[in-house]
Amino acid sequence: MKLDTQVIAQAALELLDEVGLDGLTMRKVAAALDVQAPALYWHVKNKRELLDAMARTVFVGAVGDLEAPRQGEGWQDWMIELATRLRRAMLRYRDGAKVLAGTYVHDEALWRTVELTLRTLEDAGFSMADAGRVFPLLLHYTTGFVIEEQARTGVDYDSNPYRLEHIEQIVDTTRYPLTARMVIEFAAADFDTEFDHGLRVILAGIRTTRTNPVL
């Protein structure tokens, strides 16, 4: 197989299920590709560049076939679909959200996605200033949500501290009855439902705080 940045990034992503982001090294990626580590440095200079390439692969996988809203599709539904695509792409890999967080993605797919977002919001009556805030806001919410979602699998612990029975034991229900109820309900919550609810809260806030409100 001919090495290039994309091949290396994909191999690194596939290694995540086994070693996690903290255990990922250039040497392990090279071994997975059956090459010596120096061969990788022709394409990625260091782990920082490797992470950027991995993030680009995740992002492009989410939005590669993204299109403008269909006729009659509202801007809010379109934004929910975009955020859902991003979440699904991150969830394909262990620590997928951590890969995307804080990395530098530069790709035609990113610029196209941002352009589609801005045009969709502009068509919905948003000012450019308001529209420009929306994509980063949803990206940050989605990334943060998935980081927490993936952490709750407990794969980085010898014993998963997020287990419902564990949480029920450590929260003093006498002293903190409301907190206990909240954390227990949250631990048992369906991630899809919670993600969708959070998105709709954010979008409702965007709608009501825009500087040029339009019904």
Instruction: Calculate the terminal CA-CA distance, rounded to whole Å.
Output: 55 Å
H and E string: HHHHHHHHHHH
- Poorly predicted ranges: none
Class by SSE composition: mainly alpha
Q: What is the CA-atom radius of gyration, in angstroms?
A: 20 Å
What is the total number of structural domains?
Answer: 1
What is the tally of helical segments? 11
Report on the structure:
Keywords: DNA-binding, Transcription, Transcription regulation. The chain has a single domain, classed as Tetracycline Repressor, domain 2 (Orthogonal Bundle). The chain contains 11 helices and no strands. It is flat and about 55 Å long. The model has no long low-confidence stretch (mean pLDDT 91).
SSE blueprint:
Layout lengths: L4 H15 L6 H7 L4 H4 L6 H17 L11 H17 L4 H5 L7 H16 L4 H24 L12 H7 L6 H11 L3 H19 L6
Keywords: DNA-binding, Transcription, Transcription regulation
Protein name: TetR/AcrR family transcriptional regulator C-terminal domain-containing protein
